[in-house]
Amino acid sequence: MELRLNGEQRSADVDPRMLLVEALRDAFGAHGPKIGCLTGDCGACTVRVDGAIVKSCLKLAVAAEGADVQTLEGLADDGGLSALQQAFWDSHAFQCGYCLSGMLFAAGDLLERVDSPTDAEIREAISGNLCRCTGYDPIVEAIRSVAS
Amino acid sequence: MIPTRFAYEAPGGAEEAVAILDAAAEPRVLAGGTWVVPELGSGASRPDVVVDLRRAGLGTIAAGEGTVMVGATATYADLIGSALVRERLPLLHEMAGGITGGWAIRGQGTIGGSLIAARPQSDVPAVLVALGAVAHVAGADGGRALPVPDLLTGPMQTGLARGELLTALELPVQIGTHGYVKLKRGASSWPIATAAAVAVDGVLTRLVLGGVAGTPVELEPEDATMAEIHDPWDDELAPAAYRVAVAGPLAARARRKAIGG
Amino acid sequence: MGRRLVGDPVVKHDGDEYLTGRATFAGDVVLPGMTHAVLVRSTVAHARILGIDASAARAMPGVVAVLTGDEAIPLVEPVPSSVDPTPIGGHLAEIRCLAVDRVRHVGEPVAAVVAETQGDALAAALAVRVDLEPLPLVLDADEAMAADAPLLYPEWGTNRIVGGEMGSSAEEVDAAFAPADHVLEGVLRSHRGNAAPMETRTHVASWDETTGRLTMWATTQNPHPLRSTLASALRLSEAQVHVIAPKIGGSFGLKMFGNREDFIVPVLARLVGRPVRWHEERAAALLPGAREQVQRWRAAFAADGRLLALDVHARSDHGAVSAGHGWGMGLVGAQTTGTGYALEVCRVAWDVVATNKAPWGGTKPYGKDGATLLAEHVMDRIAETTGVDPAEVRRRNFLQPDAFPHLHTTGLELDSGDYEGTLDLALGRAGYPELQAERERARAEGRRLGIGLGFELTPESADVPGALVSGFDTATVRMSPSGQAIVLTGVTSPGTGNDTAIVQLVAAELGIALADVEIVQGDSDRCPYGFGNISSRSIVTGGSAAVLAARDIAAKLRTVAGAMLHAEEGEEIVLGGGMAEIAGDGDRHVPIAVVAGAVFSLGYILALDIEPNLESTRTFRPPNIRHTPDHRGNLQVYTTYPFSMHVSLVEVDDETGVVTTLRHVIAHDCGTVVNPAFVDGQVRGGAVMGIGSALGEEFAYDDRGVPRSVGFKTYLLARASDVPPIELERQVTPSPSTLIGAKGAGEAGFGGAQAAVMNAVNDALRDLGARLDATPASAPNVLAAILDARR
User: Is A16 in Cβ contact with B33 (below 8 Å)?
Assistant: First the structure.
């Protein structure tokens, strides 16, 4: 199948039984999105497809034929980190890093939709993403620091 | 990875979709995938054909004569972002805005997919009943329309025949006020019980409970005592006794919200 | 100047790798020719295996091999027990990596399929026919101890895995109860839970016929002990086994050595002659249990709220036996009972019972949560009975700062502490009197608020005699001619940041920049033998060992620098900011990099007084572990005793039972803090897990022993919108026994948070006459308690 991955036209052999998250990882070599549940609950697989955030474990790979996909590997601008990525680092908003990719996409989506989100809006925006390490406070702080 | 092999079709319209459904032995319709894809992955569902509605053009929301036509594959995000829904179907708008799972799920889950899944543990069936929604169904022998309660024949069961496809929901424009309450065990939880009340000029016209039984329970609006719930729903997150116990308080809260304005 | 690094909230040194997707987890490892393994698991809770028919599966597309338990017997020894309970009178069961003869819980692996793709393996696994003859099952620990209970291991004659009694004698208990103003008794039940790290396990094993070596990328906390046990079971020398633990996505104890899958995967790799990857599905990852106990307690106390005696019987529902050390949580919970309080009479009888559920897996905070739940429940019961304020009850019972070292009746010797200090800090931050006023105001408005306290004390950094779970650890530090250093540790990191903190420590000792220190963890070939990450020990032991090794190198650098700077008698060399300089004379300095280069290239001129290498391997062994029994026959096996005080404010909806957590305050003390951001991170994460457990995180079985909890829709974790911000205060009471005074923060937060929330809920329900004597305070449980009280 063919798709546009992080700005680059790519094609790879994809088993039609693959979920999008599996195709991205195993066929296209993008390991940023993670697998945590395969039931759309943990959010570790969140990526952007055609501009919208998507839990990629709920999408068949073949359903993304021709789509424009962005993964963690494509978030940084020109080799540097985005403001959001830097904020996550500075605020210690990730420990084991497994939820990090999904959180960044949920956060990025929020900041596109809402200019100055309240803490409640931030918490709701990341409520589709589970974290077991941080207790969520530093993630909220990182997002808040970029929004202001 | 999904253990079983299946043919994958992404028809360009309802007619094409119906033709595929009619010809297949064990087809499965795919809208947002939030329930269907995990079922494929676990092997619980082993279709020969997966019919993906992503390009079938069934996602539009349009005004009709005193109604709003909501396409079956309209997502919760579509409903939230629609001025038409916000203004003319505020109960539906409120419900969509309370769907959990984050904004990715809101962009992936569809109203039609949720209705056809017919789970008690969902906001959609009871709200559509409270709004008097009519289901538009396409089939090989032509189409039909039926009130949503007639479509919901049991928990996880619908009255769709072989080869039939839900294409849209027709909802009368809401008049009056409404009240909606939802009880969950936190953001990870599916709905345990919901209550939707609609009132006109301070008089309750509809009161529908979701989640307390296998299908939505419509109560007599002014029933001060709780009607008995037959076959209360029991699942991993709450026993039947709990749902019976909270049904009354939730109904009262929805009533107060609707009549309080 | 270098010392400033310790105590700084330095960011993760490799954060950019994570942020750009370059951090490699085991699931990211791809090898040429890699195959995929899927396990066939029992769907029945207790049964005899009559036969396994893999013929259909073997014929399916893409299948490379199918291995049953019987077929695996000649290929690998039974899984070695990671902590053997037989020395204390417990029972062992032989655990084969794939079940043989019987299955004892749903989910027990009975066969493995290897195929070209994951999809092929899954499909073939579904086609394996397992013929089972069901046996009577038991799903309750009390029922399992009844005389006529079905036995999981008939040769034992009992379902009791292990147990004992510790603390005061029966006579001492009777003597304390007799004259007491008040005596209360109760039964406290806690539910089964799983820590659910976001990463499930993935193992990738590769057998190289040419070199005769097994290489395994393993989601493991303990690469060296895993290497040792793998070598033993696979009948290889340790030199033939290479275990690499890449980045780990959280463990909380669940990735400790002793798991069956650790052995299945290498066996499959050797069998098929190709690399094999196994990825654990979430439903299987949720199986390892913890926390499920019945604690029967009696407390004797004075009218002024002082607890005089505590007598407890703690029964743990372990599930089937495993080769892991989940059973140890029953022992440690018993040892921890009553600690922190000036309790002279404390007796704990404990047993760990086998039932037809999935086995316990060591889970943060390793049984101490049960002790915390009990003690804090009793404290609130004392407050309720005597009318003394719950905070005052704790205050009157805490050990005072001058009471240390304090030998508890169970044998634990508490190192240092100021418990009242954390109480004052927590109450101050919470605004305790204002909270109480708010509670009354809300009551008048028909809203039901509750305030709950929870004091948590967690023994850390264990040493288990006879097991590869030791209280010491080792690190190697090397400096190259460029002046850059590398640290190789025996400890590992599940993501907590101890690696960055160790970099801070070493950079501080060597006087060089953080960026000039590289750290390697988790590679059994490269790193010195260590015990990995467990029991919050990584900074305490691994950090201390790295400091010792760095100090050796620093001493050499100072000697050589002294020669280069013509230092005179009595003039000291100071290392800092990349420079070696004469103390007090900034003009006489030389870059450390130049000094290092001189060791290697001018060794005969400038390095005559040292062995000309800049490498040291050192081990830190804490002094306060004692393996000789005390007067009660107890060993002292924990090094440090961090603690925290929690205050929870909740609202309870008395029509629906829904609990909302409004505020959560913690005053935490883990001794010296190397990196406050990382320590705060541990406390917050643990607290949210504890809040989540108080309200949900319930692993449930149906009456056939089939799990009802199979994923995150049926095992409910707390999300960001479910919990309040955690308000933190810090206190520092250094450990007198560790090199840098750190006590470890890895298990912080859970116990105190869970107890505080439970106490807050009970506070909210008190005037209804309702009380929860069982966790969780889920909406159905809370409403049931309210309705029961009404009848």
Answer: no
Q: Which of the other chains make 3 or more beta carbon contacts under 8 angstroms with chain C? A: A, B
Which of the four pLDDT bands, split at 50, 70 and 90, describes residue C5?
A: confident
- Residue C489: strand pairing partners: C475
> A108, A139 in Cβ contact below 8 A?
no
Q: Which two tokens stand for residue C720?
A: 């960001």
Q: Judge if A65 and A90 occupy the same domain.
A: no
- Residues from chain C contacting residue A36 (CB–CB below 8 Å): 198-200, 282
Within 8 A of C780 by CB-CB distance, chain B residues are: 238-239, 242
Partner residue opposite C780 with nearest CB, options B2, B43, B238: B238
**What is the percent of chain C where pLDDT is above 70?**
99
Domain count within chain A: 2
Q: Which residue of A has its CA nearest to B37?
A: A58
Q: Residue C1 — pLDDT band, cuts 50, 70, 90?
A: very low
What is the rounded CA–CA span in Å between residue C153 and residue C93? 8
| Residue C437: pLDDT over 70 | yes
Is there a contact between C122 and B242 if contact means CB atoms under 8 Å apart? no
- Do A93 and A60 fall into the same domain? no
CB contact under 8 A, A135 and C198: no
Q: Is B207 on the interface with C (CB under 8 A)?
A: no
What range does the domain containing B107 cover?
Answer: 61-172
Of all residues in chain B, the one with the smallest CA distance to A127 is B102
pLDDT at C638 over 60: yes
CATH number at residue A91: 1.10.150.120
* pLDDT value at C141 more than 70: yes
Domain that holds residue A128: 83-147
At residue C775, φ and ψ (nearest 5 deg) are -90, 165
Per-residue pLDDT at C215: 98
Residue in C19, C14, C37, C32 with CA at minimum distance from that of residue C201: C37
Does A67 fall in a domain? yes
pLDDT tens for C51-67 read 999 999 999 999 999 99
Among B172, B199, B231, the domain boundary falls at B172
Residues of chain B that touch chain A, judged by Cβ-Cβ distance less than 8 Å: 1-6, 8, 10, 30, 32-34, 37-38, 41, 50, 52, 54, 77, 100-105, 107-108, 187-188
Which chain A residues contact residue B41 at CB under 8 A?
19, 38
Q: What is the pLDDT of residues C93-132, one digit of tens each?
A: 999 999 999 999 999 999 999 999 999 999 999 999 999 9
Query: For residues B17 and B28, what is the distance between their CA atoms, to the nearest angstrom?
Result: 11
Residue type, position C347, single letter: R
Contact A126 B102 (CB under 8 A): yes
Assess contact for C533 and C493: CB atoms under 8 A.
yes
Distance CA B82, CA B35 (A): 24
The reply to whether B102 and B78 lie within a common domain is yes
- CA distance linking residue C90 with residue C352, whole number of Å: 9
Domain-embedded: residue A33: yes
Q: How many domains does chain B have?
A: 3
- The per-type count for chain A, helices as H runs and strands as E runs, is 5, 5
Query: Residue C587 CB: number of other CB atoms within 10 A?
Result: 6
> Which SS3 state, helix, strand or coil, does residue C345 take?
strand
ipTM of the complex model? 0.97
Residue A137 inside a domain? The answer is yes
> In chain A, whose CA is at the least distance from the CA of B3?
A17
DSSP state of C240: G
CATH number assigned to the domain comprising residue B212: 3.30.390.50
φ and ψ at residue A14, rounded to 5 degrees: -125, 125
Of the residues A72, A91, A106, the one at which a domain ends: A72
- Note whether residue B144 is domain-resident: yes
CA B174 to CA B206: how far, in whole Å? 12
CB atoms C725 and A97 under 8 Å: no
Interchain contact, B188 vs C779, CB within 8 Å: no
